[in-house]
Every structure is written in structure tokens, then in C-alpha cells.
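Next up, sample data:
>
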Amino acid sequence: MSLADVIDATEQLPIHLTGFIGRARELDQLSHLLHGTRLLTLTGAGGSGKTRLAREAAHEAASRFSRVAWIDLAPVTDGALVAQQVAKTLGVTEHARVPTVSRVIDAIADDLLLLVLDNCEHLVEATARLTDDLLRGCRGLTVLATSREALGVIGETAWLVPRLEESEAVLLFAERARAAMPSFAVTDGNRAAVQQICTRLDGIPLAIELAAARVRVLSPKQIAARLDDAFSLLTVSSRIALPRHRTLRSTMEWSHALLSVREQVLLRRLAVFAGSFALEAAESVCADAAVADAAVAETAVAETAVATPAEADARLEAHDVLDGVAALVDKSLVVMEPGDAAARYRLLETVRQYGMERLTEAGELALLRERHARYYLRVASDVAPMLVGGEHVPGLLARLTRENDNLRVAAAWASADRARAVEALQFADALFWYWYGTGYWLRTGQFDEASRYLASALANGRSAPPALLGRVLIAQGLTRLAQGDWADARDSFAEALSLVRPMAHPPTM
């Protein structure tokens, strides 16, 4: 008996009560992929729109199949029940002496069936085994799955759901905002704020929808201003939404709970990075062996961190970080940015905020801030001599510019406490030729930033060693010259000379 004899061939896909926005290019890609693969898995972070996109792709592809069946695995908590859930949806009766998988294979037989397995991430191993068995036993079967990581089945095509384009994200915000407040419209007055919201939320549909619901009580500009605390802002009052979709925090906690302890430790430590980062930076900053002074590190951890017994066994060595980053990329919590020379990585803003909360709760924030600052001070110091008078290595300035966000955060950490005045001056000394070079050669205009930082570092560091203080004063003078501030530049140079002259001609005994 074929599957068509068991169930109605016109069974409906899930019905959504809101409009589907954009994604035309993505649907074209998925249609093409469904022609050439028997297992297509849509991967992506929580709230990225995997389920909705799978529904639309299945709807468009339905004419090529005799049957489309949708199985939602979200309510299933036991991997042993995955096959039973599929059998139940397909109308396959159980038999005490025949395994459920065999019954499902017999029911599908050679029918052209598109089987959609939604929300597989918490049952990846069980879903992968079942999918492999079904694909081997049913020649006409095609499986479309959604999961935060690929199933890992031979022949699988894993497709990462991309962020919404800005124009589509703005349209989505506008439509969902009108559902909350029918009079809402994107205007010349609020468009920039709406675009900022969509950019800060990395084009994630769920986050944008939750933000849009806030227009009942906040203007777009107010919403944008509160996104530094996205988890408090982005909630929804719907009583029928999935629990993990009612708040952005719930979505993150769902993803976090699926990680191993070691992956959880790495994820929170990666949150210390701003913007993108290189693998070498993650190995240096996030590994437990990264602190130069082990005794100091152990004291700091003992005073601040509250480690669970499980975390005590999750020590991260430098060589563990690569596998950890790879696992987090696979689980759609870290984004890889391919490059010709080397890949870079970044956390979505919402993931980074969640990681920072976890880092603070673990008592590791101060320690990781210090590691991060030391690493980027070393990066800047190593490169600085090669930028004096121009680049000595072509492309060096552009490569360093990719670290701008991390350099800025690290320098700000050093200048935030008078106790770190020497480190702040060291940053000023190391970063000067980078600021100068980007201002003159790349025309990115960092003279104002340099001037503010140099003034701040000098204000707190007058008791620093004369040689360091003199170099920073010279940097301040050159910066003021570049800005056309001749008088202040002269004062900076004069003070620098008063410090360095005695060093050039030491007194005789």
C-alpha cells in the first residue's frame, strides 16, 4: 500500500497569519537546490526565519511531489520518539513486531514525497539516523529539514539562512509595526531609526518583529536607543507563541542549553570581542592558558569566578578553541566571514549581548577584558614600527583596520581606570601611527578620535616613564598639526622635548 492510499495528498502546510516578506532570491535558490539534492537542511540562528522559509519553499515545490508532509519536532523531547512522530503524521499504524522505521519506509515506498522535518536541533542525532534510513529505503523521498546545525548525513546539503536585506528588513518592521499600531508608517523622520534597528538586530526576522511590536509604546528612535539591552526590550505578549519565541532571551537560552559545557564557556568568552576577530585572537584571549602570569590568573579566577564542577573539567586550551569555534559556527551561533588570507568570525549582536551576560555571571568579565586588551596592545605595538612614515608591508594598514573595533574597545578599557594609566599611554603610543595612517592614507578621518584618546591618556598618565610620556606628547603634537591646531601642537612638542632632552644628554658624574 502506498502512502497516497494512507493519507490525503492535499494535506495543508502550516498556516501563518502574517504576510511573508521578501526572500525571493532565497526561494529561487532553495527551489534550485531541491532539484539537485535529496536532503536539504536550512540552518541558522534562532529567529532567523528557518521555519517560515521552509514552509514557503515547500509550498512552491509542492507541484513536483505527489505529497508534502510537515513534521514539527519541537514538542518531541525524546530522540526515541522521532520515528513515532513521523509515523503519526503520515498516518502509519504501529505494529508490535515491525519496527516503526520499517513501517514508515513501507508506507512511503517509491512515492514522490517531500518530507519537512522542522526544529531538529535538539534531536540532531536521532533525526539524522532516521533521515538516513528513510532516504536509503525510499527512492522517491526528498527531505527538507530546519535545524540550528546540519544533520551530518551523507549527501546532505546544508544551507545557511542569510540575514534579511536592509530593504526587506525595513518592510518587515513596517508591516509588523502596523499590526501593533495601524497608524504606523515609515517616514523620512523615522526611517534612519528603523534602519538602525534592523542593522543592530543583524536582519534577524524574530528580533525585528519583537522590536516592531514595541511601537505601541516607543518611537523607533527610542527603540533604537534601548537596543544595548535587547533582552529586556524584545519581548512579545502573545499567549500562543512558542515559549522560546516570546522573548529573545528565551530563544538564546534554548540555543545555549543545547551546547556542551565547553562550548558554553567558549561562547561567553568570545563575547568580549567587538566586531569580527581572527582565530589566533580567540586562541590567545579565550584559552585558559592565555594569561601570561599564571599565578595572577589563578588568583583573579579564585576571587571572581564561581565555576561549577562541570566547568572545572571544561578547561580550554589553545588547541581546543578551533574545534570549539567550528562547533559554534555549525550551530549558527558564530558567523564565519571568509577571506582570501584567513577567515574571520563574529557574533551576532544579540548573541554577543547574551554572552556578555553569561560572562558577567561567571565572574570572568574583568579577566577576559584584561586578556583582550593585552592581546590587542601587543598587536598594535608589533605593527606600529612598520607604519612609521608609511606602510612597510603593503596592505598592513587595511588588515589592521579590520581590528578597529577591538582596538577601540581595548584602548577604552585601558583608559577607563587611572590604575591603568600606563597601559592607556602604551595604547596611545602604539595606535598613533595607525590613527595617523588611516587619517591620511585611507581617508577614514580618525584624527578626532586620536586627539580625544591622547588627551584622556595624558590626563591620567603624567607620572608615567618620561620616554613613554614624551612619545605620546609627540603623537599629540602631530595629531594637532594634522588638524591645523598649530599653537597646541607647539605646546605638545615643547613639553615632549623637555622630557626627552635629558635622556639624550645624561648628566656626567
In short: The longest helix spans residues 421-440. Residues 4-10, 238-242, 291-307 have pLDDT under 50 and may be disordered.
